[in-house]
Amino acid sequence: MRTFDEMLARPPEGTGPLQCDPAAVRPHYGSYARWLARQSEEAMRARRVEAELIFRRVGITFAVYGAKDEDGAGTERLIPFDLIPRIIPAHEWRTLEQGLVQRVTALNRFLHDVYHEQEILKAGVIPAEQVLGNAQFRKEMMGIYTPHRVYSHIAGIDIVRAPNEQGEGEYYVLEDNLRVPSGVSYMLEDRRMMMRLFPDLFSQYRIAPVMHYPDLLLETLRASAQPGAADPTVVVLTPGMYNSAYFEHAFLAQQMGVELVEGQDLFVKDRFVYMRTTRGPRRVDVIYRRVDDDFLDPAVFRPDSTLGCPGLLDAFAAGNVTISNAVGAGVADDKSIYPYVPRMIEFYLGEKPILKNVPTYVGREPDQLDYILSHLSELVVKQVHGAGGYGMLVGPASSREEIEDFRRAVQAHPAGYIAQPTLSLSTCPTYVDAGIAPRHIDLRPFVLTGSQVQMVPGGLTRVALKEGSLVVNSSQGGGTKDTWILEA
């Protein structure tokens, strides 16, 4: 399978020190490739050890659900950090940024529409049953006002690159994450680490900054407060320290200078939300929640939830608090809705999509189901509600038994699956145990929507550290890289 390498037009074979024809290096990597070729293996290995020690000291870990240590306790893992950055030239980023703004704008328009007039359903652009029967559609949100008509204030859009017919890399949107997208803390910590380990590189390159993301996030959240909140109080709501992304919750609260709270720290009185403090109750205007819908309000959703606060949705409906991202935003990022996003862009904005979707087959369509079942060994098949690299089949990398197990699952519930061609994700040189070798990557930029749509130039580059693997998720052994957007 043909692969596009981000750094090299002709990637070297094997693993070891970077040995390549300078003429094969893509122009935007030129200075970096010359610098890297001068580095000794001992120096790179020492910096890798230093990075791991610092990450452990700071506590940049994530919990692994279902994994136990030898004492039977839950385990935490360090997300591997790669020393070699992913570099994107300014002109490519401009196109990506325009496409991301377009896409997230349309997705927010869609969310407002389906919870109000439902014009896109009446027009038959998307089958009504696909939305109204979706497990992520929350009828409790019908008719509720959200400031600026925004439902997803923080969106993580997964971008991949694959070779086109001419062999050049082309960007595609693989997935939209509009509920509680995670990973931005690793984007920031990766940049901080690179600046610490390789300060000389930042004088050679004009690298666009990302460290102001917490300021933009706080600005977005404050701008999303309900009308009348002159000086909005923002909190970050976490499920608690045992959540896999707890480090990020605490990190973002600290960086924004706001309180990190759990459900037990909040209460609702007269349809207003308050936070318990040592000085007495304090009204809360914006909740940046990192708790899933089902656990957010036990008075409405799961009554056994101890992670949320009874009455939150009632306060939200009354216009007395903003929940970010809004309840019900997940209907727009469900994998069964993903194939319709290009149609949303044309319907709401009257524009052609700037960023393409990956071609997608939908199990609920009989003719497409037949294609899926007869080509399982060639496709990536995903559960529409799956996440984190779970609930999916990578056909070319699966055994016959795994394929047949998935076949039975798809046949039993066709509407629960979509399938896509096995894209050859672009590779980037990566520092692994044996030296430098190409590994597959993706990119998750974070798009903020309040009174305007904005983002920092960059995102979280995830890397599949296992040779040949296309699964970049941290829960599946993936790592991260710093992402450099070059300023023009």
UniProtKB/TrEMBL annotation:
Which segments constitute the Circularly permuted ATP-grasp type domain?
Answer: 85-464
Q: Could you name the domain of life of the organism this protein comes from?
A: Bacteria
Q: Which InterPro entries match?
A: ATP-dep_Glu-Cys_Ligase-2 (IPR051680), CP_ATPgrasp_2 (IPR025841), UCP005522 (IPR016450)
Under the heading SUPFAM superfamilies, the entry gives: Glutathione synthetase ATP-binding domain-like (SSF56059)
TM stretches of this protein: none
Write down the Gene3D superfamilies for this protein, in alphabetical order: 3.30.1490.270, 3.40.50.11290
Using the UniProt annotation, give all residue ranges assigned to the region (Disordered). Answer: 1-21
| Protein name, entry field | Circularly permuted type 2 ATP-grasp protein
Q: What's the source species' lineage?
A: Bacteria, Pseudomonadati, Pseudomonadota, Betaproteobacteria, Burkholderiales
